[in-house]
Specification:
Elements lengths: L4 E6 L18 H13 L4 E6 L5 H11 L3 E5 L5 H13 L3 E5 L1 H13 L5 E3 L5 H11 L11 E5 L2 E4 L35 H15 L11 E4 L2 E2 L19 E2 L2 H15 L3 E4 L8 H9 L9 E6 L6 H10 L1 E9 L3 H7 L6 H13 L3 E8 L6 H16 L3 E8 L7 H7 L1 H11 L6 H11 L7 H12 L4 H18 L2 E3 L5 H4 L3
Parallel strand pairs: 1-2, 1-3, 3-4, 4-5, 8-11, 11-12, 12-13, 13-14, 14-15, 15-16
Antiparallel strand pairs: 5-6, 6-7, 9-10
Length: 507
């Protein structure tokens, strides 16, 4: 076949999934970045990128019919899997080659290909731009399909996973220094004009409706996402519920960072930037280098960044102020030191959470926080400590937005791996000092979830709770309601991901 046009869609959350506080306020950068590399490598291919989080499904269905894509690429999260399958079926009806990517596809790639004939390929790459470009070349007959990096596909012998380097060696630029090679400079600055103007105006409207009051009359002209560094300092010992597949630290050069900012200013008048680096606090040296490289004529862009309480210091906060950080996304997770150390590690504590929040408040930097209920060995006392901590955060005006939910054991995370490997769970329980409360149910988990591509969030969370939490799931839901309603009454934006509206009610 000859690929003439490609449609890239970030699938929107399924209808029964409760929204999170930032839904629809920042763009799905992945599909834009994919489109940018495709246009560069295949200039004769027509590429469109849309975000199902803000574009209604009916509009996307019409686009599929009218655009008649040769290739339909879909970004899939666990919370959008139903919609992604619907898009794949529509794509096959029009004769498109269908490709799934992003977190859910990476975690469940083999199961998806075993169960879903409407899905032709799964891209498991963390940096998927070059894999998708290589796939288009393979579909055009210019290279063998088994040379496409991190591609899962069907063969006569079964499902094959091409475990090849994601970024071609010729794309990796020099730099090195304190940050190793600047491998992410290989990813071009996204051409944000490849997403329809209507999408950008919807992001801006959503952001202003939800967070406009935070800016005290400042003129907000556009919002965007960027991703010029990846990974986390916890790479060797990640948080137990973190489902990010690759936590190795990788960077763009400071010059590329500001080149991306300038391009977004010019393309969509961006003034608010969500830097999706998994943990900006993991590399203060890189932040310092970015700050020192800031061009004099770049204006006053504002940044929303991921950060961690245990890594928050006065020096880091000062760097954030110089960079232009106005809000941080900080996983606080619990208000109980024992639970924090079980969920995250020995450096974490209630004291560190409080200290970090106070440092950011003193600096005038807003916080988007999140709490996870029902970790291993959760008790009524530890849960009450977390509820009280949530109230303390709100009473002391620490939170611009706050999310809370029972723990969901992502199958790409340690918690999910415990369910799939009961022997591993038992070893971890012995080493970490928590108890497995339902041994028989634990032994059923690999059979129940190991071969399916469809997982009910509430059900797997309930199973987790029965096995690992001393607090019943219904009481975790009650605590979630208490935190959310307390925040709502104070005017704090709230939300919960990966739970159904039946369980929590719509946001």
């Amino acid at each position: 076949m000859k690929v003439r046009n490609v449609l890239l869609v970030n699938a929107g959350s399924d209808a029964d999934i409760v929204s999170v506080a930032n839904d629809g306020t920042f763009p799905a950068l992945g599909v834009v970045s994919l489109a940018t590399v495709l246009r560069r490598d295949h200039p004769d291919v027509d590429v469109i990128a849309v975000d199902g989080q803000i574009t209604p499904m009916a509009e996307i269905e019409r686009l599929i019919a009218d655009f008649d894509p040769d290739v339909l690429g879909v970004g899939v999260l666990a919370t959008s899997y139903g919609n992604a399958l619907r898009l794949a079926e529509l794509g096959k009806e029009t004769g498109a080659v269908t490709v799934f990517g992003n977190d859910q596809a990476t975690a469940m790639g083999e199961q998806i290909l075993r169960h879903r004939e409407a899905v032709d390929y799964v891209c498991a790459a963390d940096v998927g731009e070059f894999s998708l470009s290589a796939l288009v070349s393979a579909l055009d007959g210019e290279r063998p399909i088994d040379t496409v990096p991190e591609l899962l596909h069907r063969t006569p012998d079964g499902i094959t996973h091409n475990r090849l380097p994601e970024i071609p060696a010729e794309e990796i630029k020099g730099g090195g220094g304190a940050f190793r090679t600047m491998v992410l400079d290989a990813i071009p600055v996204p051409d944000r004009t490849l997403m329809p103007d209507l999408n950008w105006s919807r992001y801006l409207d959503n952001y202003l409706n939800r967070y406009g009051e935070l800016h005290e009359g400042d003129t907000i002209t556009g919002v965007t996402t960027m991703n010029r560094a990846r990974g986390c300092a916890r790479v060797k010992s990640p948080c137990h519920f973190c489902g990010i597949m690759d936590l190795s630290l990788r960077f763009s050069s400071p010059e590329m960072f500001w080149h991306d900012v300038r391009a977004a200013q010019e393309q969509i008048s961006a003034s608010i930037f969500y830097e999706a680096f998994d943990s900006m606090s993991s590399s203060p040296r890189w932040v310092k280098a970015v700050v020192e490289a800031k061009p004099d004529d770049i204006g006053d862009p504002k940044f929303f960044v991921y950060t961690q309480a245990a890594e928050t210091t006065p020096r880091l906060v000062e760097l954030y102020e110089r960079l232009g950080v106005y809000r941080v996304n900080m996983g606080l997770e619990a208000g109980d030191t024992r639970m924090l150390q079980v969920l995250k590690g020995p450096r974490d504590s209630l004291e560190n959470n409080r200290r970090a929040c106070s440092l950011f408040k003193e600096a005038g930097i807003l916080i988007h926080g999140s709490l996870v209920l029902g970790g291993p060995g959760e008790t009524a006392e530890s849960l009450d400590n977390t509820v009280q901590f949530g109230r303390w955060l709100i009473d002391n005006e620490m939170m611009a937005s706050l999310e809370a939910q029972p723990l969901y054991p992502d199958f790409g995370a340690l918690t999910g791996k415990w369910l799939m490997n009961p022997d591993l769970a038992r070893r971890e329980a012995k080493e970490r000092g928590f108890e497995i409360l339902d041994e028989a149910l634990l032994d059923l988990m690999p059979t129940k979830y190991g071969s399916t591509d469809l997982v009910d969030f509430d059900e797997v969370s309930k199973d987790w709770c029965k096995i690992f939490s001393r607090v019943p799931w219904d009481e975790l839901i009650d605590a979630t309601h208490m935190i959310r309603s307390y925040a709502d009454r104070s005017g704090t934006v709230t939300g919960s991901g990966r739970m159904t509206q039946t369980t929590l009610g719509s946001s």
